[in-house]
Amino acid sequence: MTKTITDNPFERRLLNRVDSTLSLHYQPISSADSLKDPYDSSFSLPRYFTLFAEIEQVNSVQRGQMQLLARENERVHGLMEAVNLKIELLTGAIYDGLAKLLSPIPQQVNLSESGLSFHATEALPPGTHLHLAISHLEHHYHIAATARVVYCEDEDLEGFRTGVYFININPSDRARLAQDIARKQQDHETIRAFANPED
């Protein structure tokens, strides 16, 4: 049986698309590299991308130790919990500041589960393969993906409007994008209802 492009659940034109404000870092890569895990150490990921995951790993070990301590000494456990809470508050503030300081200036991006379009500073010819580091600082998520350029249009002062589709993106990251798209669509529907109360 011949499979048509419309059979693909991630065919670009069939998926919901929204405008979103994201920080985007991209680097051209080879077609062979585009098949690698987007989080592979050979790619240059911003430091804050992995920092949050590393902190969460430490927290996971710490939670296990705190449960043991709770059984052995409740007073010390209570004291340590208070100290940990202070550290978590400070860590969160430092992390937010670092991410905002180190990430590229957010830009308007047209986003779907299968790809996105953005303004590049230079022409990226169709067929170019890219590694993408995508951040939504407001909603605290960072996504890495590999992609292929499908179009690049010169928009004068705006730069080059570049459309890409994802080649390799982790399922959990695609699900995160889907959540963000659904949230944005819900926001648009709410605003439309207030703007057109008689519709």
UniProtKB/TrEMBL annotation:
- Segments spanning the bilayer are none
Q: Name one Pfam family in it.
A: PilZ
SUPFAM superfamilies linked: PilZ domain-like (SSF141371)
The coiled-coil segments of this chain are none
Q: What Gene3D superfamilies does the record tag this protein with?
A: predicted glycosyltransferase like domains
GO terms of molecular function: cyclic-di-GMP binding
Domain PilZ per the UniProt entry, residue ranges: 108-180
Q: Which InterPro entries match?
A: PilZ_domain (IPR009875)
Q: What is this protein called?
A: PilZ domain-containing protein
What is the species listed in this Swiss-Prot or TrEMBL entry? Agitococcus lubricus
